Amino acid sequence: MRPPSGVARLLLVCHASTRATVRAAFPADEPLDEAGLRRAARTRVPGGAVTVCAAERRCVQTAEALGLRIESAPDPLLAEYDYGRWRGLTLGEVEAAEPEALAAWLTDPAAAPHGGETVVGLLGRVSAWLATRGPGRTVAITHSSVIRAAIVHALGAPALSFWRVDVAPLARVTLTGRGGRWRLGYPGP
């Protein structure tokens, strides 16, 4: 598919904190915690852009707390990484129960010992979403995993570099693209 011409400007916003992010647990479809809701309500995001959102409750609540109007149905390509049977467990719990499986997952982007999505699959899904972005400004409320995948794609980095990117709750990342090429930027204060 040939990418649309013109400049696409994306502001990727990670959802606010949840109980799972505080516990360092693999997330399910949980709501924002009180601290995340308060922090999102105090955060400002520039207006004048089309707003898209992942379907998970924490993303929809973040968009609402930011005062953004979601322009369309939730985009399945922006969905959280599928952690399979590890959903709800902390990293420490998985490491204690399945150390070899966790090690394989962290070193092989094509591995899915949890029965969910592979990192390679996530990177492909996010790359497909980026390919659909036309000219203009878009704000996307999504997950740290999706933002990490977008950064890896924009940099043309190898899949294993996915694990070298951290994205905190309410972090903002800008991508500017034209003709299928993306530049990573910093949105500033």
Give a nutshell description of this structure.
The chain is α/β, with parallel strands linked by helices.
Written account of the structure:
This protein is of the alpha/beta class and 189 residues long. It has a single domain (11-179), classed as 3-Layer(aba) Sandwich (Rossmann fold), CATH 3.40.50.1240. The chain has helices at 19-23, 34-42, 57-65, 91-97, 99-107, 119-131, 144-155; strands at 8-14, 50-53, 136-142, 172-178, 181-185. The protein has a 5-stranded mixed β-sheet with strand order 2-3-1-4-5. Strand 4 (172-178) and strand 5 (181-185) form a beta hairpin. The protein is globular and about 50 Å long.
Layout: helices, strands, pairs:
Layout: E1 8-14, H1 19-23, H2 34-42, E2 50-53, H3 57-65, H4 91-97, H5 99-107, H6 119-131, E3 136-142, H7 144-155, E4 172-178, E5 181-185
Parallel strand pairs: 1-3, 2-3
Antiparallel strand pairs: 1-4, 4-5
Helix pairs in contact: 2-3, 4-5, 6-7
Structure class: alpha/beta
Largest sheet: 5 strands, mixed
| Shape type | globular
CATH superfamily: Phosphoglycerate mutase-like
- Give the rounded overall mean pLDDT: 93
Which spans have pLDDT < 50 for at least 5 consecutive residues?
Answer: none
Q: How do the strands of the widest beta sheet line up side by side?
A: 2-3-1-4-5
**Total of domains:** 1
SSE succession: EHHEHHHHEHEE
Helix content: 25-40%
Radius of gyration: 16 Å
What share of the residues does DSSP label as strand, in percent?
15-25%
Please name the CATH architecture: 3-Layer(aba) Sandwich
> How many DSSP H or I helices?
7
CATH class: Alpha Beta
Please report the total strand number as a whole number: 5
**Distance between the ends:** 36 Å
Protein name: Phosphoglycerate mutase
